Amino acid sequence: MDATLFISCPDYNDNLSFDVSNDFYRGNDYVKAMKDENTRNGEIVYNSMIDAKDGVSSLIGSASDSFTKFGAKHPQNEKKEVYSSSKCVLYDEDGVKETVDGLISHFVAQSPFIELVEFDETSEDDDFIGEITMWVREHNSVGKYASVNGDEWAWKTEPKRDMKMTFINKSGEKLYASLEGCKIMDIVGSNSMIIYINRLRLIDKF
Question: What is the pLDDT of residues 63-120, one digit of tens each?
Fold first, then answer.
């Protein structure tokens, strides 16, 4: 499904200027950083998606709890944040194009899930490219020490980001969502990555 992702970025003083060449973030270093990712241990990711209390996947919850969660949007903090953005296409963990029903199911379950995100490079603003590049570098830095400290350490140390998202529902209305506790699992191309999302919430307009 088509969506737009937003990442919070520093609100720089408009009077400051930065002389950055147009290909600074799109050069070979960026492409290489996006591809040089160590694939995460699947068992550790799976375990993080299991409820610690009874070992049952948190995807399975009571229907009453699910409907209660489904009925409430969560108000956001009044503090105004500055966001950078990029259009993207979402695919589920099976590589099938994500659907509105699929996202709503994740919202109802309030459980972790995995998405393959394909960014539209033509719509990325410079701040978004900068934030993604920084995130990838942090991710790769952790990966360098995974063989020494272990995959469990790497997963716990993996840098997290909270993102916002907009998408269109079946009625043609724009919905707003918060993607919390996101971690990069793998880089699958210069403009695509597999992301672990700890929780999705529907929110008011941001």
Answer: 333 333 334 444 555 557 889 999 999 999 999 999 999 999 999 999 999 999 999 9
Query: Does residue 158 contact residue 142 with C-beta atoms inside 8 Å?
Result: yes
Residue 200 — very low, low, confident or very high, per pLDDT cuts 50/70/90?
very high
HSE, CB side, 13 Å, CA atoms: give it for residue 108.
Answer: 13
Q: Which residues contact 34 (CB under 8 A, 6 or more apart)?
A: 136, 187, 189, 190, 191, 193
Non-local (6+) Cβ contacts of 50 within 8 A are 56, 57, 58
Q: What is the DSSP letter of 50?
A: B
For residue 60, the SS3 value is coil
* CA separation for the pair 180, 177 (Å, rounded): 10
Q: How far apart are CA 160 and CA 109, in angstroms?
A: 21
Residue holding tokens 């990029």? 86
Q: How many CA atoms lie within 13 A of 7 on its CB side?
A: 21
Q: Which residues contact 155 (CB under 8 A, 6 or more apart)?
A: 40, 41, 44, 45, 48, 183
How far is CA 196 from each of CA 39, 91, 184, rounded to the nearest angstrom? 13, 12, 6
Residue 175 phi, psi (nearest 5):
-110, 150
CA torsion through residues 23, 27, 30, 31, sign: positive
